[in-house]
Amino acid sequence: MVNETLEEIKKLKKKRNAIILAHNYQKEEIQEIADFVGDSLELSRTAAQVKCDVIVFCGVHFMAETAAILNPDKTVLLPEIDAGCPMADTVDVTELKKWIKKYPHAPVISYVNTTAEVKALSYACCTSANAPQIVKAVPFNSIIFVPDKNLADWVKKNVPDKEIIVWNGFCPTHHMIKKEDVLRAKESHPDALVVVHPECRPEVIELADHVASTSGMVRFTKASSHREFIIGTETGLLYKLKKENPDKIFYPLKKTMICPNMKITTLESVLSALKENKYVIKVSEELRIKAKQAVDRMLTLVS
Question: How far is it, in rounded angstroms, from Cα 163 to Cα 145?
Fold first, then answer.
């Protein structure tokens, strides 16, 4: 049955001139069928450059929306329409507009984990891979940073000379990790380096040997001479890490670091997306143009 599904996906991809993009947190079988697997920044760049008619985005809603912003001439499909992002949902647009009026000297820098509406109100977007560089590069001394307070704290440490007004949002999957979890993991694996995502709490980051986005984790572990690593991010990344480093050992910082939204997508839903053209993600042209300015700045401010 699985082989039949894979074969049908392959045929429909060719027929519809489609590509499949998958985030690092997706299930193993989804990563295997994808043409490109990466973090938000890598997939944003791929979506902006790829030549195809259809993009099947195996991720969450804001990611497919970003692909639609960058590719108005392509059909963007999200296999699971309920794949959302709790952190993105913390940003209330009406409240953000009040903040913009309250701090007219501080433009909005929005994490790419936000809706098109929030991006449209932003000067520039950023990702966990480039947030400090983006904040450093923008020509303002003060900024409003939405929505992740933990990533904002990481940016503050790296760009101490700028005022950062922080939105009180966070990623539940990363925020669940506490100091005690890190100490327990280190005790269990004393020879392993601790590598964590900047969406983790400050107390967790303080105990880490290295802090990086998912793509940064892939590069760091590949280049390191170390053999063992404790990985502090969504467990889906471990599949890629193990696949690319068969001679190294990777432990999840905590086995419960699972994003339920990232795990909704199945081979069957990818097939349905291609077969039935669902679910098409669209952004109004007025909103798309405004949001695209922020995404474009992200892609040009940091090469």
Answer: 10
Domains, the chain, in order of start with CATH, read 2-84+262-283 (3.40.50.10800), 88-171+288-301 (3.40.50.10800), 173-252 (3.40.50.10800)
Q: CB–CB of 280/274 below 8 Å? A: no
Task: Give Cα 3 to chain centroid, integer Å.
Answer: 30
Give SS3 for 84. coil
The residue type of 42 is E
**Under 8 Å between Cβ of 83 and 263:** no
User: What single-letter amino acid sits at 98?
Assistant: K
For the chain, give me the number of helices (H) and strands (E)? 15, 12
Q: How far is Cα 114 from Cα 242, in angstroms, rounded to an integer?
A: 30
Give the integer Cα–Cα distance in Å for 74 and 191.
48
Q: Which long-range contacts (CB under 8 A, 24 or more apart) does 177-185 make?
A: 177/201, 177/204, 177/232, 177/253, 177/254, 177/257, 178/203, 178/204, 179/203, 179/204, 179/207, 181/253, 181/254, 182/207, 182/208, 182/230, 182/232, 182/253, 183/207, 185/230, 185/251, 185/253, 185/254
Is 253 within 8 Å of 247 (Cβ atoms)?
no
Rounded CA-CA distance 242/67 in Å is 28
pLDDT tens for the 303 residues of the chain, in order: 788 999 999 999 999 999 999 999 999 999 999 999 998 778 877 877 888 999 999 999 999 999 999 999 999 999 999 999 999 999 999 999 999 999 999 999 999 999 999 999 999 999 998 999 999 999 999 999 999 999 999 999 999 999 999 999 999 999 999 999 999 999 999 999 999 999 999 999 999 999 999 999 999 999 999 999 999 999 999 999 999 999 999 999 999 999 999 999 999 999 999 999 999 999 999 999 999 999 999 888 876
